[in-house]
Structures are given as C-alpha cells and as structure tokens.
Amino acid sequence: MHYDYYNIIKEQYLKSKSGIMRFGSIGDGGYYLSPSSIIESDMLFSGGISSNIEFEFDFYRLNPNASLLMVDPTVSKSKLLLKGLARLFLKKSRKLSYLYNTLMFCDLLNQKRCKHLDIWLKQPEQIFGLIQKNFGEQSTVLLKLDIEGNEYDFLEELLAHQSQIRAMVFEFHDLDVKHHLLLDFIEKTSKNFNLVYMEVNPSGGFVNSLPKCIELSFERK
To answer: Which residues pair with residue 67 across a beta bridge?
Structure first.
C-alpha cells in the first residue's frame, strides 16, 4: 500500500471556504484566495513567473496601494515579446496571451511600487531579506511561490516569519519524494493558517496514481 499523502492533506487539513475566487489565469498560473487576502496585503512577493503575469496584474490592479516584488530571471520584456511574436508566425496556441502578458509586464515595470529582480530564487537568497532590501519592512505579505521544487528551501524561513504573512499560494513539486516536508510545513503552520484550497496540477505527472505536483492556498485565521 502506498502512502496516500494527497488524501491525508485533503482530509486532515483542508478547510474549504466559501467566497474564495480565482485570481490570475484559468489553469496553470492562477490561484484561489479570498478577495480580502488581496486587498488587505501590503505587498505581493512573487517567486516564479515565466510567461504568465496575470496573477501579479490582478493583485496590482485590485490593491492600488500595495507593493509588488517579482523574482524570476527567465522573464523580461524582450523575452515575452519574442515569444509572443514567434507564436504569431508558428502554429502555436496562446498567441494573444503572450502579447497580453508582455503588455502587463511592461505596465508593472513602469510603476514605482513594482520591481522585478532578474535572479534565481534559491539559497542563499532569503525572501524576507529581498523584501527588506527593496521595500523595507512589510508586516502583511501575500506570498506566491512557483519555483519548480526550490520552494522547500524556504519553508523554514517562512515558518520563522509567519507573523508577517497574510496568505500564501504555492505549487509544491516532487511530492512523491518530498511529501513529508510538505506535511510537516502544513502541521507547523496550522495554528496560524487554514489550508483553504488545493488542486492537482496534472502537468507534474503522477506516481502510483498520486500527483507529484499540487497547488495550495493558505490564509491567516
């Protein structure tokens, strides 16, 4: 019998909440949260963007007083534009989506309250060190991490800074070998946060019918 970590998380920790909404794109790149988690945050720290800026842009337009720090070396104005133009001439899907995300990214970078760091989010970087360096002390942070497995490197830091976090959204990868780290994190944050949404990301694949990648949303109690 295989250890069914997915249903253990679902049955023991998931507290489904009415009123949550999807922010960002439909499918990969969007996350479910309560609107209050968006509008009551002082800033969004977004680790991992690639070619999808829609979650970040939703936060930016719905919270006009908040800061936004995006960390990802794989995204830039030129890269997004080239991808969009290439798709116009090739038989690829999401042609207009790439160009739309290019415009959103350019708009964000023109705002003083938005910054993009062209670095990999991995140790020895520290999330709250980057926040402090770029925007000073922040007491109510909305955190998004989609960094292809490096999220585990920052769990201890997040545990130490729980008082500064309003909500968290994640993609957790490699659960077939690292589910124990996720379960430990959920247990240690359960006094302060509710797990309000979870879903399988099928692009991560499956092992023994269990998903290797899931998306989770946590909100402060």
So the answer is: 43
CA-to-CA distance for 99 and 51, rounded, in angstroms? 10
Question: What confidence score (pLDDT) does residue 91 get?
Answer: 67
CB neighbour list of residue 57: distance below 8 Å, 6 or more residues apart: 104, 107, 108
Tell me the pTM.
Answer: 0.93
- Cα 167 to Cα 144: distance, rounded to the nearest angstrom: 9
Q: Report, as ranges of residue numbers, the positions in the chain whose pLDDT lies below 50.
A: 1
What are φ and ψ of residue 36, in 5° steps?
-65, -30
pLDDT of 94 reads 64
Return d(Cα 191, Cα 72) in angstroms, integer.
31
Nearest residue to 140 via CA among 108, 163, 106, 119: 163
Q: Which two tokens stand for residue 37?
A: 């988690």
Distance between CA atoms of residues 33 and 23, nearest Å? 7
